[in-house]
Amino acid sequence: MTVASLPPVQGFGVDIGGSGIKGCVVDLDKGELVGDRVRIPTPQPALPDPVYGVVADIVGQFAWEGRIGVTYPGVMKHGVTFTAANMDKSWIGTDMAKGLEAVIPGTVQTLNDADAAGIAEMAYGAGQGERGLVLMLTFGTGIGSALFIDGTLVPNTEFGHIEVDSHDGEKRASASAREREDLSWSQWAKRVDRYLDTLERSLWPDLIIVGGGVSKKSEKWVPLLSTRTRVVPAELLNDAGIVGAALAAEQHIGQ
Ligand code: BGC
Predict the structure, then answer these.
(1) Cα(160) to centroid(ligand 1), Å
(2) Which domains are present in the chain?
(3) Is 73's C-beta closer than 6 angstroms to any atom of ligand 1?
(4) Cα 142 to ligand 1 centre (Å)
(5) In which element (H, E) is residue 97 found?
């Protein structure tokens, strides 16, 4: 007798960023996108209603009808946004889950973007099987953080905003700071080093996973870091937010 193999469990994730909104069906067995993702530029100004419209458009393009996970680049508690460091300030206090559910059939699980990326790395990428205190950092427009203790997420850490030499950490050490100020890799690595050193002294993690677009070029800057903590590049790169959001929706993780 042959045993028919079960169809893969699928989910749907949407990653909202300051410049683009991306979504796709996700194979939750493998942690991979099923086909090509859809990316639509974030409406400017990035106000709640136009953003909900784009998310609904993306979900509609896949004719997806189940639960979906949606990330937001700020603090997110029980569907409500609490901060907007790199988004329009009108987001603060918005019930994003309710707003999305009004235009999209099905239930929406919302969570912070870096928490989603971290969930994906822990399940399928550089954090697989890692115990202890694992810190995922995403270097992009800002710096996002996701903290795990023995694989369990501690949601909404905002380590991008720790004070380093009297500055907001992400203002000087994000990937956008490198581009904005035209820094060489070694100049930027010095800033990241200083940032990580400050973080390390108060948190003492066992592992730091560095993600965001710059993790594709990790060989240019990770070897220049002097942190005592082991630092490894993320493995899921651009898709981590989508994959993590889909997994969070399926497992009801996040806030
Ligand atoms: C926000 C975080 C977010 C990160 C990456 C920061 O400015 O405060 O919540 O995760 O940017 O988007």
Answers:
(1) 7
(2) 10-115+239-251 (3.30.420.40), 130-234 (3.30.420.40)
(3) yes
(4) 6
(5) helix 96-103
